[in-house]
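Final report, closing paragraph on structural work. Over the funding period we assembled a curated collection of sequence-structure pairs, and we close with a single example.
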Amino acid sequence: MEREIILVDVNDRPVGTATKEDAHRRGDLHRAFSVFLYCGDRLLIQQRAFHKYHSGGLWANTCCSHPRPGEELEEAVSRRLKEEAGIECEVKEIFSFVYKHRFAEDLYEHEYDHVFLGEYCSDPVPNPEEIEAFRWISFGDLKRELAEEPEKFAPWFVIAAPRVLRVIRDGSF
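Its predicted structure, as stored:
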């Protein structure tokens, strides 16, 4: 049975639930989160598993997912970091944003994305069902790759990563 996710309005107030696939097929706005982990001047990014039904093979932040109905956002973040990457560390929400991206006629990302940041300097243990590969990338190399080859990255990452790098640079974390 496919898990349900939380549908929300533009103010992140719950308005119902749907299966993840149904929400992505219809383009329903739903709650999501993106976790960015860094160490010094490097960010830990993942290449999404190739078999994912959207964004497979693209590079993205350390972990991203959806909280379940009745699950606190922070609980979901800790759960998915452990399930996807074998990581346990403290993270803090630093901002949120809404975006919509159309992958195909019947496949969308329309998310109210809560962005979390944490400092982590060990090696992850990727779950092959979720993650093809991890790599540490310097902030400078990431900025260059985002400018020169944005198509290598998931659409939400292209939006969020520059803002995350500013938060780290400004020390406002």
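Strands lie at 4-8, 14-19, 30-39, 42-48, 59-60, 63-65, 92-104, 107-119, 131-138. The longest strand covers residues 92-104. We thank the funder for supporting this effort.
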